Design the sequence.
């Protein structure tokens, strides 16, 4: 305790951090203070590789495409069993909707005429990557990837596909976690990566307008150079695209501070299934002229239209960012710490994330170069608290005073305060690395739930009791947003275990009026589970909207809504 107090009082240092960009030019000057409190070991000895890059945070997709996937099925016939198992959900046999046509040679010729040869991809390796999701759980058998370069090309493609009744899957960075971004059968993949221009940036209002295929991290770098930040940050930033982020209404690590994309997205351009381009690309903060249609597309997972351009409100980059990596003895302490952080840190609190000891264990065992910042023993829970403000000495003092009080009050049992950008990266690497560590550990059943914070961890414990030692049940996530990532890790997929997990997990969530998808969406994995979180009347209205905007159902079929209601 004394060490902690003394160290905090001696602290006169600060760091400027831009977490999303390891090449950031921000200053990192740190006089002698060791920010480690609670143990006597110098922080520098405890932390990992300062040379880490973003590719270690999120390896390129190609590294994740392994062998062991079932081979593509022949789709010449029209009613096929699903060619591969969907490991993310209870085994279901799906039928290809017979109303969809199959690609023929004339189609290919037309596509090549309009898009140019190189934007009509039939190469096997690239098809394999585009057919397979990040988790290697879902695999389609599309024989065609189209790469539009302009909104007009997107419009032409959709108009053509609609007239031929060819089903399509819009694809961004293909980092989605619910099987939404890959085909189920032979749907044409429309990949947005060539539409990657920044169209305008208004520094006075902080409004960025860009094409949908811009990679999140590239937008982060651009804005950094202008003195701004994206209101959105997630572990997949090196691959995911802003169009995919908006289509999934991604949450991520800054949600606590900047809120949902429903609030930050000011405008969209979207292309409907029949090729109609909807210009909703406003850059106004306030506009109450009729229904705000853009909200239909935010979070609709490519089922209502293809987002081609985005206008987004971005906050200025603030000069003082601090990050603490803390240990708590139990979940109640994590909750109380959150409550206190909201009260005492107030306007400077920018992230509050947690992971349990099993998550930490996975990261330490499966990710290279990651070290436990709080050795020697493991703690039951770890919390990351980030503050972002504009007054370094005030912010730091405020955080330190808060940490001191929390330690004295027993809410925190140990902790470290990052002293430079490398330390901050290494702390974030632990939290952001959990999904990757789970992938490396073997099979994983992934659930992304909104629940009342005080109930959240009860589910993890209930699941542990239910599954016994056969599976490792881990809990981590965005505690500050009431968003639990419950993951069940096994050496191999196992139907018996899955039978114990589902529908239990959905029923439990529904009982507490939680959401079965806090941020990842429904995709294919949960299309048939929507009723756990939405009333029949709401689902009916969604089906009507889907039918109105996409009467032939060509946009991302089998996803989001139960196929039985849309086909
Ligand atoms: P894809 O995966 O390509 O597509 C996702 C869905 O959007 C699909 O249904 C697709 O059809 C549709 N789509 C894509 N682009 C368009 C478009 N232009 N128009 C219409 N529809 C489109 N998610 C979070 O919310 N928070 C997190 O913290 C988070 N962390 C993650 C960390 C890791 C390591 C990984 C692998 C994933 C994480 N995700 C997270 C999930 C995923 O990254 C997000 O859902 C992301 O927003 C998907 O973007 P994408 O460009 O990869 O889209
Ligand atoms: C995260 O918060 O790490 C992401 O949503 C990914 C996941 O849930 O695994
Ligand atoms: Zn998340």
Sequence:
């Amino acid at each position: 305790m004394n060490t902690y107090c003394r160290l905090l009082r001696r602290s006169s240092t600060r760091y400027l951090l831009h977490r999303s960009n390891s090449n950031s030019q921000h200053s990192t000057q740190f006089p002698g203070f060791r920010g480690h409190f609670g143990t006597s070991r110098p922080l520098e000895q405890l932390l990992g590789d300062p040379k880490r890059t973003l590719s270690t945070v999120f390896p390129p997709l190609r590294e994740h495409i392994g062998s062991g996937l079932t081979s593509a099925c022949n789709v010449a016939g029209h009613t096929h069993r699903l060619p591969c198992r969907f490991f993310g959900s209870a085994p279901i046999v799906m039928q290809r909707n017979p109303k969809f046509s199959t690609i023929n040679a004339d189609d290919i010729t037309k596509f090549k005429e309009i898009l140019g040869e190189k934007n009509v991809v039939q190469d096997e390796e690239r098809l394999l990557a585009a057919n397979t999701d990040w988790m290697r759980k879902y695999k389609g058998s599309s024989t065609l990837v189209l790469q539009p370069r302009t909104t007009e090309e997107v419009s032409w493609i959709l108009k053509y596909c609609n007239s031929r009744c060819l089903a399509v899957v819009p694809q961004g960075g293909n980092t989605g976690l619910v099987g939404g971004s890959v085909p189920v059968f032979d749907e044409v993949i429309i990949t947005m990566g060539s539409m990657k221009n920044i169209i305008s940036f208004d520094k006075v209002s902080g409004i960025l307008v860009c094409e949908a295929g811009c990679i999140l991290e590239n937008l982060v770098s651009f804005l950094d150079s202008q003195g701004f930040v994206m209101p959105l940050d997630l572990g997949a930033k090196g691959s995911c695209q802003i169009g995919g982020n908006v289509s999934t209404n991604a949450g991520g690590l800054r949600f606590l501070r900047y809120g949902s994309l429903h609030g930050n997205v000011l405008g969209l351009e979207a292309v409907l299934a029949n090729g109609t381009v909807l210009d909703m690309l406003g850059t106004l903060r306030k506009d109450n002229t009729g229904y705000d249609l853009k909200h239909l597309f935010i979070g609709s997972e490519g089922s209502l239209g293809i987002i081609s351009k985005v206008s987004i409100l971005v906050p200025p980059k603030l000069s003082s960012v601090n990050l603490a990596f803390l240990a708590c003895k139990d979940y109640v302490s994590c909750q109380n710490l959150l409550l206190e952080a909201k009260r005492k840190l107030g306007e400077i609190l920018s992230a509050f994330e947690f992971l349990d000891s099993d998550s930490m264990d996975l990261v330490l065992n499966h990710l290279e170069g990651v070290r436990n910042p709080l050795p020697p023993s493991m703690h039951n829970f770890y919390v990351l608290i980030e503050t972002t403000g504009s007054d370094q000495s005030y912010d730091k003092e405020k955080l330190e005073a808060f940490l001191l009080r929390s330690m004295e009050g027993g809410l925190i049992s140990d902790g470290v305060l990052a002293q430079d950008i490398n330390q901050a990266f290494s702390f974030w690497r632990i939290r952001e690395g959990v999904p990757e560590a789970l992938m490396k550990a073997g099979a994983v059943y992934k659930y992304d739930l909104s629940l009342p914070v005080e109930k959240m961890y009860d589910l993890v414990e209930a699941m542990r009791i239910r599954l016994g030692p056969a599976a490792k049940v881990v809990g981590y996530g965005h505690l500050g947003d009431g968003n639990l990532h419950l993951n069940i890790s096994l050496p191999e997929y196992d139907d018996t275990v899955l039978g114990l997990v589902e529908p239990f997990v959905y029923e439990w969530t529904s009982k507490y009026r939680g959401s079965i998808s806090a941020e990842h969406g429904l995709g294919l994995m949960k299309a048939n589970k929507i009723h756990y979180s939405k009333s029949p009347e709401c689902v009916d209205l969604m089906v009507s909207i889907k039918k109105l905007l996409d009467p032939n159902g060509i946009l991302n079929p089998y996803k989001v809504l139960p196929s039985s209601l849309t086909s």
Q: What stands out?
A: The longest strand covers residues 320-328.
